[in-house]
Amino acid sequence: MIRLIFLVVFLGWIVIWILLPTKVYKNTWTPKLESKLNSTYFEGEGNNLLLFSFPVMFIAAFGSVYLHFQKELRKPTCKSAVVSSNRLSFLKRPLLVMAPLGIVTAMEIAFAAMFIALLIWSLANYLYVSFGHLHMHKQGEKIWQAKFRSVSLRLGYIGNICWAFLFFPVTRGSSILPLVGLTSESSIKYHIWVGHLSMILFAAHAVGFIIYWAMTNQMAEMLEWSKTWVSNVAGEIAIVVGLAMWVTSFERIRRKMFEVFFYTHHLYSLYLFFYLLHVGAAYFCMILPGIFLFLVDRYLRFLQSRQRARLLSSRLLPCGTIELNFSKSRGPVEMSVEGPYGPISSHFLRHELLVMVGGGSGVTPFISIIRQIIFQSTQPDSHIPRILLVCAFKNSGDLAILDLLLPINGTTTQITQLQLQIEAYITREEEQPIADTKKLLQTIRFKPNQSDSPITAALGPNNWLWLGAVITSSFVMFLLLLGIVTRYYIYPIDHNTGEIYHFSYFVLWDLLLVCASIVIASGAAFLWCKKQNGVEKQQIENLEVPNPTASPGSDLYSADTELESVPHQSLVQATNVHFGARPDLKRILFECKGSDVGVLACGPKAMRHEVAKICSSGLADNLHFESISFDW
Fold first, then answer.
1. What is the DSSP string of 496-552?
2. Tens digits of residue pLDDT in 424-478
3. How far apart are alpha carbons 353 and 83 in whole angstroms?
4. By the 8 A CB rule, do 565 and 550 touch?
5. Are strands 597-602 and 420-426 parallel, antiparallel or unpaired?
6. Would you call 96 helix, strand, or coil by DSSP?
7. Are 105 and 629 spatial neighbours (Cβ–Cβ below 8 Å)?
8. With contact defined as beta carbons under 8 Å apart, do 155 and 204 qualify?
9. Backbone angles phi, psi at 462, to 5 degrees
């Protein structure tokens, strides 16, 4: 029933976007709504706040409450895992695998088609209404020039629709994504798609206006910062910053110069600031929900990263990988940490067999999943799938990464309870290396410090009720502050002094009040939770630093080395190492026995695409490629 309410509200929100460019909305709805909603407290923003902002904020706030109770009621038992419905699993199978888009399911294609249809519908209606009442902006302007300007302007409008959806996929602690079965990891590609599309539209919008101004001898317009309308200068600054972010986000640059992409992408705050100055307060209220929820999440993550986490130990692997072990109780070396993020492994427990295909460092996400499944196997009445891990490494030294499957403090019974099979392939070595060349795995432990704090996730999946309270209180606070400022400061200037309040100042007030509301509400909630965590703090005894031990990763291919524990012995027995070969993925996947086989892939793009094509070929009905992806 609750999900049905959310669905109705969401569909109503979509209907508003569909009606927005039509004559019905402009000539019939808008006058009536403005007469009732644009009061002295909100002026021209009341209409958009109610129609475009409130529905999504309602879903985000009450969705958090729903997720809290769903989390409390969910039990990771055999029945709950197996009874999961697969009626729509065919929609989640890969349907399109290609380089620009990656791995795309039938459901994603359907929603993408509907989104593109919305954009085309909006552009067509905007142009139809505009061409019917064409406005000449300069004496002697030709009709085709006016139409050219109108097309350029409406392309910007369509870009604004993209921005209404742009920030949802990158809001890691969002309550919106879990409601539709998504995570920020699996939906990051939607941010990429919408980002590319919006930049194409905004670039065409900017270039179109420059051409129009050049044709009509109005190049001076590029330097205009109007008091009564949009600022051209702000738009130009925004598009320059946006183009820098866009160019460095292309895959070839992102993979070869990741730091350039990473730091350039942090210009989003500057891009957002000048973009909003350009479009104005009315459009800001239309795209506010995605930005508002993103800022809440980003500030909570910032607060978490200001704390010093307890680092208990680290393991230095011969392959160069470093594992950091944090404590949920007091422990340190001091570090600033965000997270943890990512999907929980219970999502995968419904399968009879779980196949994980990884290459190189792409194995690390699977290690986290397997370790969680190992823990889950100790719980009563839990359904644990059989696990097949297929991994490929360039050199035998990289095998040491498999040591991370065994936590430092793991018990001898955990790994033995798991039906685990590992097929490891060493692609650049034809035979096993001489045992004397093995490197040692170094374990370093750190003494506890009374000043540091436990590692806990920011509000969100860690505490949905608190997130719902933050969203609700911050949004209500924003509305109250906006009403007060508008009624007692802006309205008197705009209506009683004969002056026109500066167009850009409306947006500046909105931005200031949004940020202030988020900082106050999020900060208060975070400090309260921190206080509660402080009450429950625990102390642990200092740990002695043991001597480095031989790497079980090396033991995987050396029978002469003495095994140091039962867990390591179980891991070695579960592992087959193949030298000088690459995995035959088609054979491996087609030979998987079981009616329900879940398949995950992480690593090089070519490998992930190959796995997706095999699962979507229709030659094996039992293979279910998981939509969750780790796109590196």
1. HSS----HHHHHHHHHHHHHHHHHHHHHHHHHHHHHHHHHT---------PPPEE-H
2. 999 888 776 655 444 556 666 666 565 556 565 566 666 888 899 999 999 999 9
3. 15
4. no
5. unpaired
6. strand
7. no
8. yes
9. -70, -30
